[in-house]
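Hey, quick one: can you model this chain's 3D structure?
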Amino acid sequence: MSRAIWDVVVDLTHAWDDERLTSPQAASILVAAGVERYHTDFARGERTFYMPDGTSEQVAMPSPPQTAQAFSAKDIQSAGRAIQRHEIRYRPFCVRVAEAGCAGFHVFIAGGRTIYYGRNGDQHVEYFPGLGGSSSTTTPRKRNGTHG
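Sure thing. Here's the predicted structure for all 148 residues.
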C-alpha cells in the first residue's frame, strides 16, 4: 500500500470515527483509492484495509464497542438499513451491530457484500444496494455444531 493510499485510509477512519462521512461517501473514497476490501475487528479494536496486490494496513479504532454474546441477524440488518437510509453514521452503526452480537465484519467492495460474524461463528450477509443485490442471508450456529 502506497503512502498516499495509507494517508487516505487513515483520514477516512478518522472521519468515520468523528462522524464526518456517510457510508456512501466512505465507499466512494475507498473505491477511488483502489481498496478492495476491509475488515473491522471489535475485539482487537482495529480495521484492516486490503489492496488487490495483497498488501494491507491496519488502523486502530478508538474505543471499540463491546460485543454482546447473543447474535441477532435481525438487529444487524436493522442497523444496516438505518445507515443506508442515513439515519445513523458509522460509529453508532458499529455500536448497534456489536450490541447485536457482531464481533466484526468483512466488507467486500467489488463483491458488493458485507459478512458479519458473531463470537460463536454465527454469520449474516448483507448485499449493498445496487451492487450485489438486495437480499440477505444468515447462517446461525446450531447447538450440535452444524450450520443451517
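One thing worth noting: The chain has a mean pLDDT of 84.
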